[in-house]
Amino acid sequence: MSDCIEMLDSETKAVETPEDHAEELRLWLRLLTCTTLIEGEVRGRLRQRFDVTLPRFDLMAQLDKAPDGMTLSDVSKRMMVSNGNVTGLVERLVESGHLDRRTSETDRRVQVIRLTKLGRAEFRRMAAEHETWIADLFADLTPKDVRELMRLLAKTKASAQKSAGRRRP
Amino acid sequence: MSDCIEMLDSETKAVETPEDHAEELRLWLRLLTCTTLIEGEVRGRLRQRFDVTLPRFDLMAQLDKAPDGMTLSDVSKRMMVSNGNVTGLVERLVESGHLDRRTSETDRRVQVIRLTKLGRAEFRRMAAEHETWIADLFADLTPKDVRELMRLLAKTKASAQKSAGRRRP
DNA sequence: CCGAATTGTTTTAAGCCTAAAATGTTTTCC
DNA sequence: GGAAAACATTTTAGGCTTAAAACAATTCGG
C-alpha cells in the first residue's frame, strides 16, 4: 500500500464531494461515441452506395413497416424529430417520387403518407444491404453480448424516459 | 425437448435463410433510441437553463480538458464532426467571447483555440448541473449495470471501428 | 532546392434540425 | 350552436452538419 500517497483527489475526497457521477458521465460519452461512430459509418455507406441521406432512409424505414401509411405526427413521434423537420423531409421525398402524400378523407388536418412502388422497391434494396452493414459493425459481439446489451439498453431507455417524464409531465 | 416443435422459423431455417441479422438491427435501433432520447433531453435542458446549444457545450467541454488549447483538427477528431462544422462553431463562440483563437507561432496553418475566462467560468457552471442531469437520466441503473454497459459498449466501439477500418483503411 | 504530396483550415452548396409562432381543422363542453 | 381548447401541420428564423472543392502552409524526396 505504499502508493497511497499517490491516490487521486477524487478518491480521497469521497466524503467532501457529496455526489460523484463521473461514471455515469463516462457511460453517456461512450454511448454517444458508439452511436456517432456507427451512424457516421451508415450515413457514408448510404451516400456512397445509394446516394441517399440517412434521414431519408430512416423515414422510408418507418413507412415500410406501415403499409397503410402514417400521418406526419406518427412519423415525427417514431423518429423522435420535430414536426417541421418531417414536413421538409416528406416534401423532398414526394418530389423525388418515393412518397405519396394525401389529405385524409375523414380529417382534413391530417396528411397520410405512404411509400410509392418506387419508394418501396428502392428501400427494400437498400435495407437488405444496410442490414449486412449493421451485422458487420456489431460482428465482434457474441449472441450473449447482444442479448445483454439489449437488456441493459432497455433498462437505460426506461430510466431516461422516467427522468424526462419527471421534468416534462 | 418437447418444445422443439414450437421452434421459431428463424431458428429452424438457419440454413435456407443465409444470414439473419435481425437481432443486431434491433440492437442498433435501441442504441440509437437511447442516445436520441438522452441527447434530446440534454439539449432541451441546456437551452432552457443556460440558453446554450448542445454543440457549443460539447465544444467547450473538449476545450475545458485542454488548458493549453487545441487545434481545430484536434477538436474535429475528438468531436467526430467535419472540419467545416468546427470552423462555424468556433466562429460563433469567439464572437460571443467564450473562445480565444490565435494562429500558431510555429505553423501558420494551425489555429489554436482556448476557453476564455468567461468561457471557462460559464462552462464549469453548466457542467456541474449537466452532470446531475446525466446521473438522473441513468438513475435506475445499478453500479453493476453501469460497469457492464461500459464493458459492452467498449466492445461495440472496437467492433465498429474495426469494421469501419475495413472499408476505409 | 524545388516540385509534389500532405496537412490544416475555410468556403460552398445543399440538406437537416429545432423551437416557436402561425394556420387551419376538429373536438369539447357549456 | 358557438366559443374555447386541442390537434395536425406548416412556416419562420436561426443554427447545425456534411461532403467536396478551394486555399494556404509545411514537409518530403529526389
UniProtKB/TrEMBL annotation, chains A, B:
It comes from the Bacteria. Keywords: DNA-binding, Transcription, Transcription regulation. Coiled coil: none annotated. SUPFAM superfamilies: Winged helix' DNA-binding domain. Residues 24-158 form the HTH marR-type domain. GO terms for molecular function: DNA binding. Pfam families: MarR_2. PANTHER family: MARR-FAMILY TRANSCRIPTIONAL REGULATOR (PTHR33164:SF57), TRANSCRIPTIONAL REGULATOR, MARR FAMILY (PTHR33164). This is DNA-binding MarR family transcriptional regulator.
